Amino acid sequence: MLKEKLDQYLKENYYPFHMPGNKRSELLDQRLGYGRDLTEIEGFDNLNDPKDLFIAMQNKLAEIYRVKEALITTNGSTSGILSSIRAMTKDNKNILVQRSAHKSVYNAIELYDLDADYLEVRLDEVNAVKDINYQKLEKILAEKDYGSLVVTSPSYEGYILDLDRIYDLCQKYKTKLLVDLAHGSHLLLNKLYTNSFDVAVTSFHKNLSSLTPSAGLLINDRGLFDEIKRNLAIFQTSSPSYLILQSIDEMIENFGKFYDLYEKLDNKLNKIYGLELKNLKIIDYDKKDRSKILISTKDTTISGKILRRLLRDRKIEVEMAYPEYALLIATIFDINEGFDRLSQALVEIDKEINKKEFPRQVSINIPKKKMKIYEAVSSNKEKTPLDEALGKISSQYVYAYPPGIPLLVPGEVIDREVLSTISYFRTNDFDLNIDGEFIYTIIDKVNKN
Ligand SMILES: Cc1ncc(COP(=O)(O)O)c(C=O)c1O
């Protein structure tokens, strides 16, 4: 669609007295896409108020993902999440959020001064986020009216929630469901996709073919469409990248071929999952996307971070490494050579290491909320030594990786339990975003005066 139109346009040889300033110049590095970097000139539509070309692309996307409407963005799932949450909480500022939500969800809570409650998560054996408690979800939904529920499925590591069940509950309790499907644009290919949501936001760049940070919004509730579209034009640049748009166009045009490519990927994955490993373990569940290769080093003599180094020594780059696992992302564009290299490396490394008992299951409780996030981040703060922080209100996020869940959110009370979790994580090689021995807390208004 966009590609053919642009090919034709370039043939017609118009001289560009318009943006972008690179003018498709041959003085510039031709490996970059200057020759096809375009802007909204006549006939090339306007992504923030589309009339033809982009409407056609969005309609095709809606068809592919079996939803009523779709929107394209060149600003990542981040802009889609900000836009959707704003629309969903327009008339009801109560929001229920899976605690492991992405930063953009917390940013939305702050930006729109939302009143957030959180849904605890269940962890797997390597402390990756695996699931939620569905009974607890129903109990919370029954007790309070929420404008929106935000869940993340799949998780970064590939665990899939039961969206059919969650959507049923949301309809029963009249709450709009937003699914952060950032890591799941490819789930159509391995049949783990379901269209059970009011809105889902997905990053095509993470697991499919289009350029970083292309993304899409999948919308089933038509009542939300206009408002989400209006918001997207606020959070998205007014100069969307036509290179990114061409890559989305190519993805849409080729989607049909991706199913065959997935079968080939599946064969490669079967070999990896079938490796006979004595110490390392590749985690595999029915409700887990296998293209997220989650390699547990738990109960071995090495950490996930050392596994990453050993793989790097063999010229293999992983997506992420934590104390108990390394995460590798496979897509339909992987080649046999990469998988051969990985198989050989894993077998070799597995032989070099041994078993070691290392029980370390963490549990993360959600502290009491004293203030909304916006109120907390706009209050005066001070740097407080951790051992003097008991009872104070946090003005910062404290994140632990894994499982990528905030231990503290601005406005929450620093209790004994969270301090002991922080201390445990600090001494056990978890990544914590904390400034040494200190934490930022809200200056007590009584003390200040
Ligand atoms: C769960 C989740 N949601 C949303 C995002 C944001 O996606 P994007 O990078 O496309 O803005 C990320 C990014 O990593 C993510 O992990």
Task: Offer a few descriptive terms.
449 residues, alpha+beta, seven-stranded mixed sheet, four-stranded antiparallel sheet, 14 helices, 18 strands, 36% helix, binds pyridoxal-5'-phosphate
Report on this structure:
The protein is 36% helix and 17% strand. The protein has helices at residues 2-12, 53-64, 76-88, 103-111, 134-143, 163-172, 204-207, 222-235, 242-273, 304-313, 336-352, 373-377, 416-427, 445-448; strands at residues 69-73, 94-98, 115-119, 121-123, 129-132, 148-152, 176-180, 199-203, 215-219, 281-282, 292-296, 320-321, 325-329, 381-385, 398-401, 405-408, 431-432, 438-442. It has a 7-stranded mixed beta sheet, with helices on both faces. A 4-stranded antiparallel beta sheet has the order 10-11-13-12. A hairpin with a 5-residue loop joins β4 (121-123) and β5 (129-132). The termini are far apart. The mean pLDDT is 95. Bound molecules: pyridoxal-5'-phosphate. The site of pyridoxal-5'-phosphate has 13 residues, from α3.
- Beta-strand portion reads 15-25%
Rounded to the nearest angstrom, the radius of gyration is 24 Å
Principal-axis shape: globular
Please give the order of strands in the largest beta sheet. Answer: 1-9-8-7-6-2-3
Helix content: 25-40%
Mean pLDDT: 95
Q: Please give the number of β-strands.
A: 18
Number of helices: 14
Secondary-structure class: alpha+beta
Low-pLDDT stretches:
none
Q: Major beta sheet, specifics?
A: 7 strands, mixed
Distance between the termini: 65 Å
Small-molecule binders: pyridoxal-5'-phosphate
